[in-house]
Structures are given as structure tokens and as C-alpha cells.
Specification:
By secondary structure, the chain is α+β, with helices and mostly antiparallel strands. Helices cover 24% and strands 29% of the residues. The longest helix has 14 residues.
Length: 119
């Protein structure tokens, strides 16, 4: 079973995507936006970027942990992983992101903007 991209909204209404593995573990989180269309576009760009090792950049946090950052062709940040412990196999994590993103369906978990009225 493949992972999935989910569109989610925060309490303020900003939308972002999450890439989850088949067990529901968060692999990547996109940046917040007020436009669902922009976030859907970022999912497409993320699918393209994760196959290029030059666009998946590893950063070390001040606490000795790591974060993987996915960048677009122009260097714009598309998404980042949660903080990863130093013991995490980073090559395996990168491959897990790559393999899940390739075939992951996109599921919209945002609230509908308006309710439907019964006819």
C-alpha cells in the first residue's frame, strides 16, 4: 500500500499538504497557504523534486537533529520533514519519501467552504 498526500487546514484556515507513509507517519509537510490550488501545485512540484538528490537538502538543527528540506527547481522551499533523530538512517528516509511521493494519491481533508442545501 502506498502513502498519501493529504491537504489539511489549520484552525485559521491556512492549507498545507502532508505526505504520510502507509502507516500514517508524517514524512513531509508543505508550507501553509491560503490557496488550495497553490498547495495542489506544490504537491506536483514536490513529486518532481524528490527524485532529484540536489533538491532534497539535509539541514542540521541546533539540537543535533536533522530536517530534510525539499526545494523546487528555483530553490524555493516546498516542504520539510519533521525533526529527525541523529540515529535515523537518512538515506533510507530519503528513499522512503521518494517512493511514497511517486504514487501517493492526493486526499483533500480540508473542510468544505460552504454547506450544501437540500433541494
Amino acid at each position: 500500500m502506498a502513502g498519501r498526500f493529504e491537504l489539511v487546514a489549520d484552525p485559521r484556515g491556512a492549507i498545507h499538504f502532508e505526505l504520510l507513509d502507509p502507516q500514517g507517519t508524517l514524512l513531509l509537510q508543505g508550507l501553509a497557504s491560503n490557496s488550495k490550488i497553490m498547495v495542489q501545485n506544490e504537491v506536483l512540484h514536490t513529486r518532481q523534486s524528490v527524485v532529484d538528490d540536489q533538491r532534497v537538502v539535509l539541514h542540521e538543527t541546533g539540537e543535533g537533529q536533522h530536517v530534510m528540506v525539499v526545494k523546487d527547481h528555483d530553490g524555493t522551499v516546498l516542504a520539510r520533514s519533521p525533526k529527525l533523530a541523529p540515529s535515523v538512517d537518512l538515506a533510507a528516509m530519503r528513499e522512503q519519501i521518494r517512493s511514497n511521493a511517486a504514487s501517493a494519491p492526493l486526499i483533500d481533508r480540508t473542510k468544505p467552504r460552504g454547506g450544501r442545501r437540500a433541494s
